Amino acid sequence: MVAFDLESPSGEPGFPPSYSGVNPSSYPHQLIELFQTLGPAWAGKKPGYLLHCRSIIMEILYHMIRTRTFSLPNSPHTPAIENIINLMQENYSRYYSVQELAVMAGLSTSHFRLVFKKVTGQSILDYQNQIKLGKAKDLLLSGECNVTEAALHTGFGNVYYFSRLFKQVMGCNPSDYLRK
């Protein structure tokens, strides 16, 4: 058996207010199976059990975050937003206008902005920049690109703007990620 004690940031025991009313029976079946796998993996203490348990916990956290992130109650628009996010991730070197994305989602521009922010917690521009900067960081870490090449590869025409934005969002200069 695996038991967890939850504590809020203020030190009070129990679920944070945003999770109050969560019914464990409403969790996805896959999440329940992961919890059921975790107990025996920990108790068995077979070689590599720590790594196995950590990976199960990471998967549980992933599912919980994903469920929490994409949980608009009874919203018919969530699948459209997920499709837009997938499109932006696949075409990270391109900037999409809000109007363009709204048309693809079949929503008005203002409604699309509102729904996108509710689903992701970010504005469309911030989300696009996050995708681009994440890819640029991966390129820099891999050693495939220098800063200028990473900026151009991810759709930034101006390397100075890219560097300023990178530092603002990531907290350090892009050159700090260059593989030495």
TrEMBL record:
Domain HTH araC/xylS-type, first and last residues per copy: 82-180
- One Pfam family assigned to this protein is HTH_18
The record's listing under InterPro entries reads: Homeodomain-like_sf, HTH_AraC, HTH_AraC-typ_CS, Tscrpt_reg_AraC-type_HTH
SMART domains, per the entry: HTH_ARAC
Record's keyword terms, sorted: DNA-binding, Transcription, Transcription regulation
Record's PROSITE patterns?
A: HTH_ARAC_FAMILY_1 (PS00041), HTH_ARAC_FAMILY_2 (PS01124)
Q: What is this protein called?
A: Helix-turn-helix domain-containing protein
